[in-house]
Amino acid sequence: MKKDKWKTYGQLFLTMLKIGAFTFGGGYAMIALLENEFIAKKEWIKKEEFLNMVAIAESTPGPIAINSATYIGYKIGGVFGSVIATLGMVLPSFTIIFIISLFFDRFLSLTYVGYAFKGIQVCVIYLIVTAGIKLLKEMEKSVWNVIIALSVFLAMILCSVFAVQFSSIFYILISGVVGLLVYGIVRLKKKGDEDS
């Protein structure tokens, strides 16, 4: 039994290490890889739980990939599993940033490094757009979900067009309050239907 537990911890650590090492751009750029690893390859969670995990990981403090790793680690291996998974996720980035910081000025002056960063930027944009489209396709197509998605998309475009300077913290708080209001309205409506 203990051997299986350590094997699970090792698998958690190596999976998160791979995700942390080979995903550039963080956040939404990692969603496609997280989904592939957590759902398709390892079958640790189902699609619906993955969507909920992404929503929770995005609305809690910290990077989405680290929050997701902590969640999966806790689900698979408890508190120690969450520590192992989180460590596996941050170790590659920490190592790379530490090495780059030692040679930062000389590193940036290299022409090929500049070209590499431009290529990585294009890749990150592609990964973010792909992840967004995939999440939209997998979203439950209820009236509320469609209204919320369209409202967010419209607000995003309007804020970009009119160059509105608004903290992302307020976006998260406003979205949370709207989500609670919608949940409350739906719950009251169901209660009213049951009473009548």
Give a brief rundown of this model:
By secondary structure, the protein is mostly helical. Helices cover 84% and strands 0% of the residues. The relative contact order is 0.10.
Walk me through the structure.
The mean pLDDT is 81. 84% of the residues lie in helices and 0% in strands. The protein is mostly helical. The chain folds into 2 domains: 2-139, no CATH class; 141-196, no CATH class. It has 8 helices and no strands. It is globular, with a radius of gyration of 20 Å.
Order of helix and strand elements from N to C terminus: HHHHHHHH
Our count of domains comes out at 2
Strand proportion, as a percent range, falls in under 5%
Shape: globular
Overall mean pLDDT: 81
Largest pleated sheet: none
The gyration radius over C-alpha positions equals 20 Å
Low-confidence stretches: none
Supply the helix-strand structural class: mainly alpha
End-to-end separation in angstroms reads 54 Å
Secondary structure tally: strands:
0
Can you count the helices? Answer: 8
* Helix content class: over 70%
